[in-house]
Design a protein that fits this description.
The protein contains 2 helices and 14 strands; from the N terminus they run αββββαββββββββββ. The protein is mainly beta. It has one domain.
Length: about 250
């Protein structure tokens, strides 16, 4: 039972990324590791164009996610919405039996910032805060992630009660490439704009883990593969979207 619950929580950490770039929000619930900080960055210049048009963004509103780890498959469903009036996105996850798991509300300065997150793929992060509330099978808690940026609007830090990650180098599109956590873990991000992937390597206390995250032309996450220090795959998550919506600046 404990292992199954742990697998379910791992699913929750991953699935928010299927909707919006801010998978970092999973850290609000104490999550850490390579799967909780993908595709982060600021509003730099350069890089390849994203799949959504320059003034509009397409995002999923209904997604099914399946994570396979240790030979056990766990599924969850997600619903997502963006409110241009408040410039907030809301992602809710449910387990197959319909029981609640978590709701993450990400706040933006404007609708334009939400759209601009996918001006490159893999995308950037332009949220101000992300608040995650868990319930049911995911326990009961509320956590907030706060994002900080430099003068070029590149992500320099995100912090939650679970810890702080600080970035010190970025690529030409403003996406962070080098970072570290307050617990001593190092982070290295490599972006492939042609194949639309982000490979993140974390080393913590000599333990190495790698996550490879894939995105479609609209910047929507389609797959996450996590491997250990030996290169063996420890978990694979796939996302299937059945409904999308479009928001414009």
């Amino acid at each position: 039972m404990a292992r199954l619950l742990g697998d379910q929580i791992t699913v929750r950490k991953l699935v928010v990324a299927a909707f919006f770039v801010v998978a970092i929000a999973a850290n609000a619930c104490g999550g850490s590791g390579s799967t909780t900080a993908p595709g982060s960055g600021g509003s730099g210049s350069g890089g390849s164009g994203g799949g959504s048009s320059g003034s509009c963004r397409t995002f999923p509103t209904v997604t099914a996610a399946t994570t396979t780890a240790l030979g056990v498959a766990q599924s969850t469903s997600l619903t997502g919405v963006f409110d241009p009036t408040t410039a907030k996105s809301t992602v809710t996850t449910l387990f197959p039996n319909g029981s609640p798991c978590s709701t993450t509300v990400s706040s933006y300065r404007s609708t334009a910032d939400f759209v601009d997150e996918v001006r490159v793929v893999p995308g950037v992060t332009l949220a101000l805060t992300a608040v995650t509330t868990t319930s049911g099978g995911c326990g009961s808690s509320t956590g907030t992630v706060t994002f900080s940026y430099d003068a070029q609007r590149r992500l320099t830090q995100f912090a939650s009660i679970g810890g702080t990650t600080t970035y010190t180098a970025w690529d030409s599109s403003g996406r962070p490439t080098v970072g570290a956590t307050n617990t001593g873990a190092s982070i290295a991000n490599v972006y492939d704009d042609v194949f639309r992937t982000l490979t993140q390597t974390q080393i913590n206390g000599g333990t190495r883990s790698v996550s490879t995250q894939s995105f479609d032309a609209n910047g929507i996450q389609t797959r996450v593969v996590v491997s250990d220090a030996t290169g063996a795959t420890t978990s694979t998550t796939t996302f299937t979207n059945s409904s999308t919506a479009t928001v414009c600046k």
